[in-house]
Amino acid sequence: MAEQSEAHARGMKQENDRTDNEIDSRGTEDEQSLQAIKGILLTELMDVEKSPMFIIDLAQSAASRNQNLNPIHINTALKTAGNLLDVVSGRREPDPLGQSDKTTYPVFRDWASNPATHEYRLVFNHYSWTALTLRERFKLVSGTFQRQQATTSTLLSTSSDAELPSFMRGLKPPGSDLDSGMLSSTETRMMSGGHKFAATKSGDTSEDQPGLSAWKYDWTSSPPPPGLSPHVELVRSVDWASTSLGPMESWSPQLRFMCNFLMANPAPSVMFWGPDLNMIYNAAYPSVIANKHPTLLGMTPQEGFREAWEGFEPFFKRCQETGQGVFLEHLLTFLDRGFGPQEETYYSFGFMPIFGEDDTIAGWFQNCFETTKHRITERRMSTLLSISETTAAASDLESFWKLLLRAIEKNEHDMPWVVIYAGVDQNEVSTGSDAHTVGSSTTKRFEVLCTIGVDMGHAAAPTRTDIAKGSKGFHPFFGQAAEAQDPLVLFLEDGTLPMDLVVGLDTRGWCDPCKCAAIFPIRPTTTNPNSTETVLGYLVMGMNTRRPYDEEYRTFHRLFNRQIVTSIASVLLLEEETRRGRTIAEQAALDQRKFEEQLSLRTRELERSREQLQNFADCVPVGIFVLASKPGNMDGTYQYRNERWFELTGDSRDNNIGSESPIWDRMNPEDVPVVRQAWKAVRTTKTSISFEFRVAQRSQYVGVQEHQLDPQGDIDCTWILCYAFSVWDDDGTPRSVIGSITDITPQKYAEIIQKRRMEDAIEAQRRQETFIDVTSHEMRNPLSAIMISADDIMTSLHSLKTNDPTMSPESKKLVDSSIDAAGTVSHCAQHQKTIVDDILTISKLDSGLFSITPVEVQPLAIIKDLLKMFEGELQTAKITQKTHIDDSFHDLALDWVLLDPSRLLQILINLVTNSIKFTQLQERRIVTIHMAASRGKPAESVSGIEYLPLRKEREDLTNRPEWGKGESLYLCFAVEDTGCGLAADEKKLLFLRFSQAPRTHVNYGGSGLGLFICRELAEMQGGSIGVASEAGQGSTFAFYIKARRCEHVPTETQTSKQALSDPHSPHVNNLRRSAPYRNNVQEPLSARQERAAPGGSLPSDSSAPPESTNAPHVYDILITEDNVINQQVLSKQLLKLGHRVSIANQGQEALDFLRNTRYWKGNESDGKNLDVVLMDIEMPVMNGLECVSRIRKLERDGSLVRPVQVIAITANARLEQIDKALDAGMDDVISKPFRMPELIACIERLLETSQSNSDSGE
């Protein structure tokens, strides 16, 4: 072969020389062509190539090692090859079927960026890649698509010329530089050095095989092919001449063939050749022999596997004797692979003899598969399974420890010795052992319970006596082990395992001295894994001396620990359940004995109770019965009836069927249907029921005073109340009916008497109200005439005095005296009206008819309206009025609130009236009104006045739906004056019914009800009232009420009849915005004295003329009044004011009058003029309510072309009476008595509103 190689080399040299001569002979002929070729760029050639190609800069790759490839140029084919560019650049995972499972992207990356001069062919992502190094800096990588699936191993071989890009095929052989003419001048500067091809041809192309090339793969040839792997180069570097095989050039073809076959085998393989069985192995075999590589190359097995040869030699001999191969599975082999000279390993071997030409065995071929991981894992999993199965029979901790020891005893190699420390109570040991507790807060300590391979008393397993003498064993490590996440492993090598704890141990398995130990804290799975408090014990065991403590060993330890804690948790649960079951059983036995004793006791008590109940049932004044049901007799038969049953019902003592009992005959016929229906219900349903009936038997409770109880003498029966319920069996059938009967005749008679008394009381109240109404009506009618007449007299006398300057002094004195007398009459009439109003108010309070109606108002407008009412009186009395608004009112930004303005003004007018009354005679006359607000209930006013305590609990009216959900607020008011003040004993009488200040302060006293009513009104509105006063210093009355902030600002039309005030309450005309004509129902503008009636009358200056009554407008007025005096007085005053007046004596006459007015259809142009109708309510023939109802009906029918304005003038002053008048169709109501200015103001307001509504089109 050497001669052939030399001949081949001489031939190649001759061929090259011939080629060079030919090129030189052309000379200058091809100079121009060469210059053109030098202008062609490498990148241009790459772009026309159909195979994907790219160039990387090896300098950049070295700087960014372990990073993805970053090509500096890619050709068009790579750009258009789908996602191949992303795979090559590492941005996408390769197809798992496109290469060997060992050829990952890092392998491809390292291969492509390897600056070595050897190029290899690598299959990656369905492409066979070749690489060329250009000028030792740039790597040109080209790929050829492979249609076959990748082999199971990494395809590393020399590249063939057919796999190179087309423009590179046939270039110079390895060792020659790439012609610099192929690169541009710039690329020439970038690159330096030469390029070597990856493969050569083995000889020239033969003539009988034109176009084919036989590539050389024999690495044993000389010279060898380029691109050899490092392992092959290592094999070639062995001094084979010093072995029995001789130099490689002398190897036989068979040996060469087997060597190439060995290197191509992807599995770990070794070949033993020659008489000495010299070893040759492939690149995968070092993973088996570890650190024996590469020294085993060329060595004999007797020398290389000295420690295992005794086990291998019999197989060689057996194969030699039989000439047959043999396959050995899981052969235990002790190798020195770096962990130790006796590492436990398992291999499966396939020995095959290699026969030579002389029919002898020339060598042996061995495929080797390591099964160490499989065998050891199988052994360890068997141990875990044994633990699970064995400890399942444990019933408590003590048996668990022993069964655990039995389960792990079989695995003597991974657990050569074991010591179990179990926890015991601190109370069970001596005080001298406190040093061996785990944790400072625990009361548990640990003692050796059982061992394997360790004698009790050894340093690793100290007894209680040894501990008392100072021996600690493994106790110092328990705290650290309990806090560790994994089992604590101690090694002799690093000094963590004390030598004295393992010296002298009788270890099992390999019987090697112990090198390391592991400590497992045993705790239930449900506890904190890092707590020392829950540890039940510790398992300390030696470790396999012939296996490294690697990740597999750590995994086994974790699984071992998990299996133990899981099993012990089951034992603890079982032990707890057993303990609980035992406790339950003991308790059940105890309960059974107690139950039997109690049953005997209860039986005796039941007998006594039955006798007691029997005696009790016979003695109680209630009839008791039990009606038992039986199959075929669902009506039941009396099972028990006490004596009282027979006394009340007169029933027969025979044991009759319930439906045939004589009681049905004695029952009142009117009650029988009701009782039968109730009886049916109690027998068919499971509900209890009660009913009443009468029996024809005289009640024993009716005695000699029966006619006093029942004057009608209707006492001929006994009223009975029956209460019964049914008892049902489990199958849903009625078993019995149990019931009781009671004589309720006295209650029935009492109900009759109570009903009659209630009717009498209602009738008495009705009569009282009628009497008050009649009295009020009859008093108000003449009072109205008196007040109007008095005003007329004063007006006339003042006019006479003013218009007659020639009047003598005596006449003037007489006129003044008459004016004073008329003022006194007016004052007395007003005082009388106040008393009537107080009586009406108290009557409503006592009857519970006083209501609080919320209306959306502005508190400041109420004060403004109040001041406007008193403007004239304050000026007449020369009293200075002041108003103070507290900052709290503005801080809360109060505007619109919900409250009852009429009740609020009723209090304010009463207090202001009193202040004027008691201040007008003082030298210093000032009345101040204070106003404040707060979110919480005030304990005292702004001036420091304490409010009176509530006399009783009252409902919070602001929680009702009509008050809305706005914010709750408290409005505080105070009226301060500089009047005469009150003494201490006088203040005690304030706010009491029928109490007042001494009469010496004023000409006429009030009713004594004013302040009492104020207190009632304040408390009804969720507030209270108080006073501060000193004699001669003035008084301050303060009160507060509860209100709510308006959720929405009221619209222009949000007023209705509910805003109507009580006839004795202040007018609220200015508190609301204008409303449509028919809906704007407002309280009549009656005199302020009428509205403020609770506080007493207002004094008037008898010398002052009445308010001016000169009307700015002249109206046509129809007076409908049956009282002639009232007709005359009222018509006279209206005529005096310039108005035109017509008279109707009752309602029918008023209707007849309307037929002739412009209101009537057809009379619009020539009918009589009419502006307003003043109508009394109580009149003969047709009263006012019926008349106004007829008027509204005529308006709806169209007989009246437009609405008629009707004002009710009535002495009926109750709110319900005014409501009734408004409901009937009245536009406004003014109650008697009244004064002319008030009437004229009411008429003007009504007509102005009507006119504005008419102008707006309503």
TrEMBL record:
Keyword Phosphoprotein: yes
Single GO MF descriptor: phosphorelay sensor kinase activity
Record SUPFAM superfamilies: ATPase domain of HSP90 chaperone/DNA topoisomerase II/histidine kinase, CheY-like, Homodimeric domain of signal transducing histidine kinase, PYP-like sensor domain (PAS domain)
Annotated stretches, region: Disordered: 1-31, 1051-1111
Name of the protein in question: Histidine kinase
Stretches assigned to the Response regulatory domain: 1116-1247
All copies of domain PAS, residue ranges: 633-686
Gene source species: Coniosporium apollinis (strain CBS 100218) (Rock-inhabiting black yeast)
Modified residues (4-aspartylphosphate): D1176
